Each structure stands twice: as C-alpha cells, then as structure tokens.
TrEMBL record:
Domain Enoyl reductase (ER): 21-333
Superkingdom per UniProt: Eukaryota
Name listed for the protein in its UniProt record: Enoyl reductase (ER) domain-containing protein
CDD domains given in the database record: double_bond_reductase_like
Length: 361
C-alpha cells in the first residue's frame, strides 16, 4: 500500500537558553498506512497538539529529570488529541479519538497505550482535551486540591495566572470560596484575569519595581496559598508574605530558562518562622483522581462556572513559533476567532490537520 506523506517537527539540538524557532525544523517523511501486524500498536492522525512550558526542560542535555530529554534529530513529543487510522490493538479501533502522548507530526505510530484516554464526542471542544481536560487542567486540579488543601475564605495567589494551569487554579479557588489574586506579564492579561476569568484582583509583575510591596498591597493580612508557576523573585517575595501555616504548591519555574545558572531563593528561613509547607508535585502522582477531575470540571464547564481560553496556532509549520512564544509572551488569540477577547495568551495548542479551532466563553 502507498505510504503516507508525514510532516514532522524535528528537535535539532540541546539548548541552554529560552527556546527559539530555529531550535526546531519542519521535515517531510513517509509512514506506512497500517500498524505492523503483531505489534500491538496503532496509527493515529494527530488533530491537536499541546504546547507546554515543561517542554523547555526536555530541550536540555539532562537525564536526571522525571521525563527524558528530546532526542536530537528526532520528532518532538507532547500531549495531543488524535484519531485512530489503523490498529493492531483490539482495544482501539479506527475512528476512535484518543488523548495522550504523541509526536509533533501529522501521523504517529503509538506503541505505548497504557496512559492513553479515549474521548467520547460531546459538547466539549476537542482541543480542550489537551488543555482544560488534559495535563494542564489536571495539574491545576491536583495541585490546588491535593497540595494546597484549601479552606473556604482563604487568600490565594497564583503566578503566571493567565496560563493553561493558572487560569483554572484561580477559577477553582473562586468556586471554593477563596479570595484570589493573579500575576501576569501584560495589562491585557490582567484585564483577562479580572474581567473574564473572575479573579478578585490581578497585577502586571513587569510594572512592579518591588514585588514584596506589590504582594503586601494585595494581601495586607498575608497569603494562605501560593500556587507557584514561575519561581525566582516571585517565589522569594511570596515567602515574605505568607501567613502562618501557609502552603506553597511548586508547579513550575518558567523563569528558569537555563538550569545551568539558576537564581537562588533568599527567604527560605520564612518556611521555619511561619511554619510554611512548600511542596513540589507532578500531576502524574495523582492519576487515580482523574475520573473525579473530569466529572467536576466538565460539570463546572457545562454549568457556565468555568471559562477556558485558548490560543490555537494552525498547522505544524506554526509549531516552532508557538513553543518559542510561550517564553516571550507572544502567543495571541486571533481576534477574528474571538472578537471580544484581549489579544494575549492563555492555553497554547496547535491544530495539525486543519481541524477548526473552537473557542468558547
């Protein structure tokens, strides 16, 4: 049978800085139209790919992390939504929609199926399965409820609050009865947090000369919960403003583009004085909660209690710019697709094969 033309995004080589478009390249290869007999694998057509900050860590030559680095010269790997084309696995049939790890390419041969999830077509946009209902959404859910242990009325601070994780953390905190403040990197994102996502307050950290003073302004009585997505100076300032028995969930440190020269934290003694619990976590530690997460978040979405905002780039050729944009604030929502929304980012995904992006508010 004739082979399929397969566009692929290739990782060129390890880097020690913020990603740039030139770190990836688009190539075209061929792939067989069927999964090999006896392989237990299946062939998928990728529809949406998630563009996530953790991918930066996989672009460095470091093998001591929870997930291995990308391989130079090979296809980039990430979370995606795909449609089964041909299957040698009886549990997956042609036409099935699945979400999980796949390649940044038009077609992928999936051999590891243990963490794939079947998707049932319903009123939820397909692209949400790499955002709201995917790894970022579940990270927000597990981190907030399991690590932060929230109580009604507590004061919550979320950094990188307009991102794929932060926007849901803030909304879950509001639904839980908390007071919520978010930080972001532009005034447009601040407007998004306050006027679309329901945060009580938000501020542009780039306009603050003193982050400690900024947090004291928004939390005069202190912070109960800090959901940290950035690390560095913001974490240092939050440590000075935590309440006794406060909790800090360390989700990510997007500020640390290069771990070969990381920035130190100076205020760790506050952990002792204020009896603060600071904990790093991975969403994969809580996979047993995933069914409950889906039930709760889908319910909130259908009831109109959760808003989710995406930035969808169309076509694999846009993938290098989409990844680089995560670290420079350049990801945007097209105004012709979402005319009432500000033009700056949120959850970033890539539409692979002309799948029509779907945005809802």
């Amino acid at each position: 049978m004739a082979k399929l033309e397969n566009k692929q995004v290739i990782f060129k080589n390890f880097i020690d800085r913020a990603p740039q478009e030139t770190d990836l390249e688009l190539k075209v290869s061929d792939i067989g139209p069927r999964a090999p007999s006896g392989s237990g694998a299946f062939l998928v057509k990728n529809l949406y790919l998630s563009c996530d900050p953790y991918m930066r860590g996989r672009m460095r030559d470091f093998h001591g992390s929870y997930i291995p680095p990308f391989v130079p010269g090979q296809v980039v790997e990430g979370f995606g939504v795909s449609k089964v084309v041909h299957s040698d696995d009886p549990n997956f049939k042609p036409g099935d929609l699945v979400s999980g790890l796949t390649g940044w390419e038009e077609y992928s041969l999936i051999k590891k199926t243990e963490r794939l999830r079947k998707i049932q077509l319903d009123d939820i946009p397909l692209s949400y399965h790499v955002g709201l209902l995917g790894m970022p959404g579940f990270t927000a859910y597990a981190g907030f409820y399991e690590v932060c242990s929230p109580s009604r009325g507590e004061h919550v601070f979320v950094s990188a609050a307009s991102g794929a994780v932060g926007q849901l953390v803030g909304q879950l905190a509001k639904l839980h009865g908390c007071y919520v403040v978010g930080s972001a990197g532009s005034n447009q994102k601040v407007d998004l947090l306050k006027n679309k996502l329901g945060f009580d307050e938000a501020f542009n950290y780039k306009e603050e000369q003193d982050l400690n003073a900024a947090l004291k302004r928004y939390f005069p009585q202190g912070i109960d919960i800090y959901f940290d997505n950035v690390g560095a100076e913001m974490l240092d300032a939050a440590l000075l403003n935590m309440k006794i028995h406060g909790r800090i969930a360390v989700c990510g440190m997007v500020s640390q583009h290069s771990l070969s020269d990381p920035k130190g934290i100076h205020n760790l003694f506050n952990l002792v004085m204020m009896r603060i619990r600071m904990q790093g976590f991975l969403q994969s530690d809580y996979l047993h909660l995933y069914p409950r997460f889906l039930e709760h978040v889908i319910g909130y979405y259908r009831q109109g209690k959760i808003v989710y905002v995406e930035d969808v780039s169309e076509g694999l050729a846009s993938a290098p710019a989409a990844l680089a944009g995560l670290f420079s604030g350049k990801n945007v929502v097209r105004r012709d697709m979402l005319p009432n929304m500000c033009k700056h980012c949120t959850s970033q995904s890539i539409s692979v094969n002309g799948s029509k992006p779907s945005h809802r508010l």
